From TrEMBL:
Residues 62-312 form the Chorismate-utilising enzyme C-terminal domain. Keywords: Isomerase. Pfam families: Chorismate_bind. Its EC number is 5.4.4.2. It catalyses: chorismate = isochorismate. This is isochorismate synthase. Coiled coil: none annotated. SUPFAM superfamilies: ADC synthase. Belongs to the isochorismate synthase family. It comes from the Bacteria.
Length: 320
């Protein structure tokens, strides 16, 4: 940006880069294309060994998260909720923070992710490496994905998934298919596969289609965000539960970011690429806020859900 004015997109018809919060009722920040400068730099990644480190869990945080998960499970069982994604945040004091070094570690550890650094003087510094595409669209042809389930990567992607993760993944896929069926055609749902993201594995299903002529990028974004992978089902009830019961405000965690309406004169196309803001952190002076969560269903176990968030938080802590 050429100045520090905070701008927002009105209807996703502009060209530029957007940074959107989890709460879809709030506006997405826009870096307009005409106000931006593009700088290209070659980064030479030093060999970085992801060393095993010991991190100690906060007992109060553990107790709070287990209480939240138990409350969520009870709410699901007595309600028509099928899934709710609940999350927490950890505060980590950092010394000798080097933005470039952390960015390089993220690039090296997450070769299949969208790795970013985002800063605005009126909002702050965010960075992360997200394995989840919200959508990619070129002219009217789009690609999205459902992503759910987590387990540690242990030298192979040939793993067995339990029914809880498989059912959770199917819920996300079914939601996406239902949301897109009325605004697109030629929907194709690929076979579900195991995808690696750093030291974690997830279930991933690719979905492609063609946006109808009467539909817009805003229509498509509204249909998908927030997905059940970061919110739950039914979406509005799950979102209401999250906003009322989590111990903090998500802000831009589980929102989305990326380029919109970038034109290519050479290929006569217009494309947008948006990514769900997962595996991210917010840096404020000598403090890093790390965000982690997991999908809760009626079959969830609170203690195991806590351990999953610990695994996810350790992944991000290792790059600091």
């Amino acid at each position: 940006m050429k100045n520090d004015t905070l701008l927002f997109t009105n209807d996703f018809s502009e060209s530029g880069f957007v940074f959107a919060p989890f709460d879809s009722e709030q506006k997405a920040i826009l870096f307009p294309l005409e106000n931006s400068e593009f700088i290209t730099e070659k980064l030479f990644l030093d060999a970085f060994i992801d060393q095993e480190k010991t991190f100690f869990a906060d007992e109060a945080a553990k107790e709070n998260h287990i209480k939240l998960v138990d409350k969520t499970i009870k709410e699901i069982k007595k309600n028509d909720l099928k899934k709710v994604v609940v999350s927490r945040t950890e505060q980590l004091e950092i010394t000798d923070f080097s933005l470039l070094a952390v960015y390089q570690k993220l690039l090296q550890n997450y070769t299949n992710a969208f790795v970013y650094v985002w800063f605005h003087p009126k909002v702050g510094l965010w960075l992360g490496a997200t394995p989840e595409t919200l959508l990619e669209i070129e002219n009217s042809v789009f690609t999205t994905m459902s992503l759910a389930g987590t387990q540690l990567y242990k030298d192979t992607v040939d793993v067995v998934w339990k029914s809880k993760e498989l059912n959770e993944q199917q819920l996300v896929t079914d939601f996406i298919e239902n949301q897109l069926s009325g605004i697109s055609s030629q929907l194709k749902i690929d076979k579900t596969e195991t995808a690696r993201a750093g030291s974690l594995l997830h279930l991933k299903t690719k979905v492609t289609g063609v946006l109808n002529q009467k539909s817009t990028l805003k229509t498509l974004v509204s249909a998908l965000h927030p997905t059940p992978a970061v919110c739950g089902m039914p979406r509005e009830k799950a979102k209401k539960f999250i906003l009322e019961n989590e111990y903090y405000k998500r802000s831009f965690y589980t929102g989305f970011l990326g380029e919109i309406n970038i034109k290519s004169l050479k290929f006569k196309t217009q494309s947008s690429s948006l990514f769900v803001n997962l595996r991210c952190m917010n840096i404020n002076k000598n403090n890093a806020s790390i965000f982690i969560g997991g999908g809760i269903t009626k079959d969830s176990n609170a203690a195991k859900e806590w351990e999953e968030t610990v695994s996810k938080s350790n992944v991000m802590k290792r790059v600091l």
